[in-house]
Design goal:
This protein is an alpha/beta fold. It has one domain: Ribonuclease H-like superfamily/Ribonuclease H (Nucleotidyltransferase, domain 5, 2-Layer Sandwich). It has five helices and five strands; from the N terminus they run βββαβαβααα. Strands 3-2-1-4-5 form a five-stranded mixed sheet. β2 and β3 form a beta hairpin. It is globular, with a radius of gyration of 14 Å. The N and C termini lie close together (10 Å). The mean pLDDT is 94.
Length: 153
């Protein structure tokens, strides 16, 4: 089974495609959102890219790491992007999808707070995945995919 893990940000959305059969990442990439576009066009751009990724990699399960409900600095653009990604999941042929927060990822994967931070900083791998070159956002996409596997299977 192939799982899409996503971590949205206002300018760049990180994603990974994880294959449970091979226990490896099939794709690690970002969607760079063109700054020249206005907000509705940016959302359409992200939505179309997510749908293309789902189709290209035959993704069956997906998860997006969403903003914490009690975040001090809510970024409205990130919230918009997270919402349009969830809409894309909903209107696709996915078997199931999840929205997941930090606590849900830690719980699903059995990580302590310090282990979670080490993974984000690429100081610690997880499930045999070499994440030494990943950004914190890409690491959160990986964790979202792995947490979806734990929840969805």
């Amino acid at each position: 089974m192939r799982i899409l893990g996503v971590r949205a940000a206002p300018k760049v959305t990180s994603f990974v495609v994880y294959c449970t059969d091979d226990a490896e990442l099939k794709c690690v990439d970002v969607i760079k959102i063109p700054a020249i576009l206005d907000t509705p066009e940016k959302l359409k751009y992200v939505r179309n890219n997510i749908l293309d990724i789902l189709n290209l990699y035959n993704v069956e399960l997906a998860a997006i790491r969403v903003t914490e409900a009690n975040a001090d600095n809510l970024n409205i653009d990130r919230l918009y992007i997270e919402a349009v990604i969830q809409e894309a999941f909903s209107s696709s042929d996915l078997n199931k999808y999840f929205t997941i927060r930090k606590s849900g990822m830690k719980s699903s994967l059995g990580l302590s707070e310090s282990e979670y931070k080490e993974v984000l900083k690429s100081q610690r791998g997880i499930n045999g995945i070499d994440n030494s070159e990943f950004t914190p956002e890409t690491n959160e996409a990986v964790l979202a995919a792995l947490a979806a596997e734990a929840k969805g299977c």
